[in-house]
Design a protein that fits this description.
8 helices
């Protein structure tokens, strides 16, 4: 074992022995909507002039939020692409036509969240935070699921004409 691996061994062992509560505090597990909301409360308080969050607290909230939104977008693209592949194989659809359509569809429409251009992270944070306030039972749900619901509610995609 190298010196670097040996130095990390006690940290890994401590994390394994500490149990789920420590992992939640470290942000590696327990990614619930309630945990995210607690982490971002100081950001919104500071934004409203009622608090004095540190740069680290603000960066943590913004980083979590941008990471979640980015993951939702990426996941929707991967899911849509996988389904497009399935259509070409199972339904015998024209592969090129399916993938041409996939490339033409707006990424936000795949996700079902159509935020106006220039929507800032602060607006996303406030949207999800207020959504959780209105629906406190969702605090124990995975944060990504609650983000999806909150952002879809606030920023729905327009229905295609004729539908």
């Amino acid at each position: 074992m190298t010196a670097r691996r040996t130095a990390f061994a006690p940290l890994i062992l401590a994390a394994l022995l500490a149990g789920p509560a420590a992992a939640q505090d470290a942000g590696t597990a327990g990614a619930t909507a309630g945990n995210w909301q607690r982490n971002c409360a100081v950001f919104l308080d500071t934004l409203a002039g009622r608090g004095n969050a540190s740069d680290a607290e603000i960066s943590y909230c913004i980083g979590q939020t941008e990471g979640i939104v980015g993951a939702l977008r990426t996941g929707s693209q991967i899911g849509a692409l996988a389904f497009a592949g399935l259509l070409t194989v199972e339904a015998g659809m024209n592969e090129q036509a399916v993938f041409d359509l996939f490339k033409r569809v707006d990424q936000d429409r795949l996700l079902g969240i159509c935020m106006p251009a220039g929507t800032q992270t602060a607006a996303q944070i406030e949207t999800v935070y207020r959504y959780i306030d209105r629906q406190p039972a969702k605090r124990n749900l995975p944060v990504t699921a609650v983000f999806f619901e909150a952002l879809q509610e606030r920023f729905p995609c327009p229905k295609p004409e004729g539908k």
